[in-house]
Amino acid sequence: MSSLNGLGALTSAQTQLETTARQIAQGPATPDDMVNLLAAREQFSAGTKVIQTEDEMTQKLLDVLG
Predict the structure, then answer these.
(1) DSSP annotation of 1
(2) What is the band of 5 on the pLDDT scale with cuts at 50, 70, 90?
């Protein structure tokens, strides 16, 4: 079930990125827009690490059980 949290983070990051991109396209970029882009990047990175960690843990469990 951890992957749901990881996938949720990826989805949230994508939404934030798309929203910020629209705002930048409609007018001049603001410092808040830059902060939002960086936050989306970090959220995406964290979500990816959650999914990778879950994959590693699942593999180790399968190794122990197999």
Answers:
(1) -
(2) confident
